[in-house]
Amino acid sequence: MSEKKEFISKRKGITVDDTKMYMLLAFMDNALKPQLPSPLYNALYVRLCMETSTGDTDKQNEIFFNNLDQQLKDVTKHLPYRVSKSDECVNTIRHGLLLLKMKQQREAIRKQAIQLKTSAHIDNDTFVESYNNIIEAISDEQILEKTLNAIDKVAEKGDCAEEAKILKESLGILTSTFDECIEYVRKHLRGNKKLLDHLDNLMKEIRLYNIEEPLVLLSSNYGVPQNRERVVFIGCRNDQNVINEIPPTVAEKDKVKVYEALWDLNMVGNGETATSYKKPELVPEFESTKVRRAIQGEPDGRGLLFSEWSRKGRLEHRFIFDEEPFYVPNMNELDKPTKHQHMELFNHQTSLQNSTVRERLRIIASHGDYDDAKAELKEKGLESQKRNYVVLNPLGQSPTVCTMPDDFIHYSAYRPTTVREMARLQSFDDSFVFQGKRQTGGNNRQKEIPQYTLVGNAVQPLMARAIANTLLEHINEVSRKPQCEIYTSGLTNY
Fold first, then answer.
1. Residue 210 forms beta bridges with which residues?
2. What are the tens digits of pLDDT across the range 29-86?
3. Which of 77, 123, 222, 415 gives 463 a disulfide partner, CB atoms 3.0 to 4.6 angstroms apart?
4. What total number of domains does the chain contain?
């Protein structure tokens, strides 16, 4: 079972208008009830009632599981009395339904087990498998799988194939999202165009917003010097047109390159920290990549270089900040102004690496590819257990920025990238300060999030800006539209 198939939807009151759900339920009474076995129809009806936030969810949950208990009796009535009371598979179904019903209790136990495992640092030891088994055993997915398998085995023992099928379908309804329930309704109305059209019109009125297929956005299309894909879901109110694209702001030939994003930061050596902008080490053959651009990255002769936008800040023209950016090494110093570190440049520090590591990185960078460099590394006794190194291509975009500091090798300095350089590849302004430790490892990761992780896990600001601008355009379109007449559903004359 997938994660989305949690058996009680967490989207209550969000996807549908509670005050209009009665129209859907009335439609089902007229159009669907005659077609389905009563236990199955009741399961579908109650499951849809669970979607509303105004109803008594606990009561609806009780009704649903009472219906399942009755279905289990229908399954076992063909079995000998002794088998129906003591058979392992029957008991598995009975107890599985009870466990599913007790979701809140199971979730509390699951959270406690995870917290205990975390607090005791249980990982990579002989305890870990047992604790993971406990957590897995009380999950919805595990319980459902065992229950459904038991239903199949019981169906083989008695003359109850139809009753078993209904019970399994009801459990499927229990684990379905609201949209999957509507698809279930559509499946049983297939072939009746009039009813299907009526259902579609109903759903347009009942849904608070609509979501079509997810959008796969490539960050480099929006002025980010990085080829990173993000899956984005956009829900639009039912009075808005569905957003099915975020138009690129930068043409393929005009995309921001790594060199123009990082060139002015190339002034730190091994184990150094820069707190101000200094004269960088230029690479003449790459200088032609520097292009004046508008805020979003499109070429503009009157604009600024990507590096200049990063220094100046892309929000300065709209906002005045309450105070200058500052850095603190831990949360304890956040409320102590005397501990705030004010600098011109933040998060630009390199690790202190020994000569062996530096030579390894130089050889990999000279080959331009880790696999190509392995033969020379082996010959010189510089092999590494690390699975991957990526040499940044100054004339292209970086691959996906990750959370490990030594994944990328600087194109000319032959060192790992700094937090600030990673942030530039993500399109963060330099005024955005990443707090806390640069790196951390082991059990400390359970309570500290290092700067590299903060950078690597972030959504690219320029791509977020493009998404926000598209949303704003659609909102403005709706505000300019005349008030539309709302479709009112009829419930008769099918």
1. 236
2. 999 999 999 999 999 999 998 876 555 778 889 999 999 999 999 999 888 887 778 8
3. 222
4. 2
